[in-house]
Design a protein that fits this description.
Elements lengths: L6 H11 L16 H19 L3 H7 L2 E2 L5 E2 L4 H10 L18 H14 L1 H20 L2 H12 L3 E6 L15 E4 L5 E11 L8 E10 L10 E6 L1 E3 L5 E4 L2 E6 L10 E14 L5 H37 L23 H33 L3 H37 L10 H8 L9 H12 L6 H17 L6 H24 L4 H36 L5 H17 L2 H9 L15
Parallel strand pairs: 3-6, 4-6
Antiparallel strand pairs: 1-2, 4-5, 5-11, 6-7, 7-11, 8-9, 10-11
Helix pairs in contact: 1-2, 1-15, 2-5, 5-6, 5-8, 5-9, 6-7, 6-8, 8-9, 8-10, 8-11, 9-10, 9-15, 9-16, 10-11, 10-12, 10-13, 10-15, 12-15, 13-14, 14-15, 14-16, 14-17, 15-16, 15-17
């Protein structure tokens, strides 16, 4: 089985569903004509399937190699592939032209990111984190820092990392102990140990730029006293080239369940030279730019690995002969029928595809709002974009990774015993994607963020805007008979999401444990409703193409999968609502010692 990039699906999303060309009057979209976008998608599909995908199993089997001189060697072929990545200009797609980027909307770059992650998740993490580092410096850095670092990061000549977690603290960053001591020359000496640093050391780039959270001596306790620093592996010289080696060393690599091709490092900063980004004690505000971008990227990993696993399962199901169809042989000349004739195998494949194509649309729709939050001349549109990015980020991250893992598990199930062996690719997809539910804030933490902060932000403005958008869509399309299934399903889900939101407002404030107990079910209810909206948007676009005389079976297939989602998957909203309304009493009933 060879990975096939979903170029056709992205063309449909960007051309027909999101109608990218209607924003052509905005400078940020001026170069994003559909002719240009389609050409980019085609080339992205070739690069990821031909260059990156063949290295996926190599990276898994070989892994990275640490040496006592603190260096790390990436798997065979990664270095050449990385050079081709840079040579092809792929890193610069969505970066600022002022620093060598191509300035395309991030929704276009999203497509390449999904394809590269499907083809080789471990490899794609290196450029993914670099772009996050670029974004943080772009937002929070001084003019001098931007001029020095951004061109090298935009081109991926230099790599970037995110140094947050320490051996004694993960999500609760207020506990971090890494310290920063100011120097007379305006630099700081950074000392402390960081763990689980993806791409913390490698042989792909000439320099690595670590963004490090640390506490300046005398700073307030907790998160109020955290600052952010640029700590390069090699200190740039007067010409901006890698100079003296900084005292930043990789002490070893983590032994992991998956993503073996990515170097997950223990990093020691031993009075390393660092430069403050932004203001003292305001580091989290800048770092959250990188963290939120990473969370969206992790949600994308859920879709990406699900796509790869689905393709493997569908190919296996059409090839594997076992049993006979319940309605009579479909392969009468063979010893058995292919297992794709069996309804339960079809169930797993249909659920996979309904989730993937709905989730992909959700990612693209959210990303477009992110673009508009910067690019639109209308402040109301920009504000809505900002509100949606804040509200949707925890849903994208947690819902898409939870469901993506389920797809990978079902893909293994389709393979039967073969899937549990390393002779078939699905075991790697399942192992690789499992981290996505954990890093950048576990999915439980994302759910708490959603109900504890994002819903209430600005008086609930974001969620109210989302409800209003759903109402406008339903009222504008309810008269179209072929949309009836979608409108009915979306209306029911929206009503349940509203009811759950009101329940949280009434019961979460009275007892915060109620909000915590309801959080995961609420997040999934939100995600299910969001995908119902995405499928409704896709159905409207497909029906418009059919009405215009387009006979491509792609559009009828879209409608079939969309109806499957509405009728077979969306009813889960009712059980999620019922569960969250039970509150926290039973969850908290047992004393701790009873566990």
């Amino acid at each position: 089985m060879t990975y096939q990039a979903p170029v056709r699906d992205y063309v449909f999303l960007l051309r027909d569903v999101l109608q990218l060309e209607r924003y052509a009057n905005l400078p940020a979209f001026a170069d994003a004509s559909m002719d240009t976008v389609e050409a980019i998608l085609e080339e992205a599909g070739k690069f990821t399937s031909e260059v990156l995908a063949p290295l996926n199993v190599v990276g898994d089997k070989e892994g990275c190699t640490w040496s006592p001189d603190f260096s790390v060697r990436t798997p065979t072929g990664f270095k050449d592939a990385y050079a081709k990545l840079v040579e092809g200009g792929w890193p610069a797609l969505g970066s600022d032209p002022a620093y060598g980027g191509q300035g395309l909307p991030h929704v276009v770059n999203l497509a390449f990111s999904e394809m590269s992650s499907s083809a080789n998740m471990a490899f794609s993490m290196y450029p993914g984190l670099t772009h996050g580092c670029y974004s943080a410096i772009h937002v929070g850095g001084s003019d001098e820092q931007k001029a020095l670092y951004l061109p090298k990061l935009a081109s991926f000549q230099w790599a970037g990392t995110m140094n947050l977690t320490e051996p004694h603290c993960g999500t609760d960053l207020g506990l971090l102990r890494t310290r920063a001591v100011p120097q007379a020359d305006g630099t700081y000496r950074i000392s402390g140990q960081k763990i689980w640093i993806s791409g913390g050391e490698q042989d792909l780039t000439e320099n690595i730029i670590h963004l490090v959270l640390a506490r300046i001596e005398g700073a307030p306790a907790g998160t109020r006293g955290i600052s952010l620093f640029i700590v390069p592996k090699f200190i740039p010289d007067a010409d901006g080239n890698p100079g003296a080696r900084n005292s930043v060393n990789c002490l070893g690599l983590e032994e992991k369940m998956g993503i073996h091709g990515n170097a997950t490092c223990v990093i020691a900063h031993e009075e390393a030279v660092g430069w403050l980004i932004g203001e003292e004690n305001r580091g989290l505000a800048v770092m959250f730019v990188m963290m939120n971008e990473a969370r969206l990227g992790v949600g994308l990993q859920g879709i990406a690995q699900a796509e790869a696993a689905y393709q493997a399962a569908a190919a296996f199901a059409k090839d594997r002969l076992q049993g006979r169809s319940l309605t009579g042989p479909k392969n009468p000349d063979g010893p058995a029928d292919p297992i794709i004739v069996h309804p339960d195998v079809r169930r797993m494949l249909m659920e996979a595809r309904a989730f993937i194509e709905g989730g992909r649309a959700f990612m693209a729709w959210t990303s477009l709002h992110g673009d508009l939050s910067h690019a639109s001349p209308d402040e109301a549109v920009r504000q809505k974009g900002r509100d949606y990015m804040g509200l949707m980020t925890p849903v994208v991250k947690a819902f898409l990774t939870d469901r993506g893992f389920n797809v990978c598990s079902d893909a293994m199930q389709v393979h039967g015993g073969s899937g549990f062996t390393e002779h078939f690719p699905v075991s790697q997809y399942l192992r690789d994607v499992r981290i996505a539910l954990i890093y950048e804030g576990t999915n439980g933490v994302q759910a708490l963020d959603l109900v504890g902060r994002k819903l209430a932000a600005d008086g609930g403005r974001g969620v109210m805007a989302f409800f209003a958008e759903l109402d406008d869509f339903m009222s504008g399309n309810e008269a179209q008979p072929d949309m009836a299934t979608f409108i009915t399903g979306l209306a029911a889900a929206k009503a349940e999401l509203q009811e759950a939101t009101m329940w949280l407002m009434q019961n979460g404030l009275a007892n915060p444990d109620n909000a915590g107990a309801a959080s995961t079910d609420y997040l999934h209810l939100f995600g299910l409703t969001a995908l119902a909206y995405m499928w409704s948007l896709q159905a409207r676009a497909a029906l418009a193409r059919i009405a215009a005389g387009d006979t491509d079976p792609f559009y009828e297939t879209k409608l079939t999968i969309g109806r499957y989602y509405i009728q077979r998957i969306l009813p889960e909203t009712s059980s999620r609502l019922a569960k969250l309304k039970t509150g926290s009493e039973l969850l908290m009933a047992l004393p701790a010692e009873a566990f």
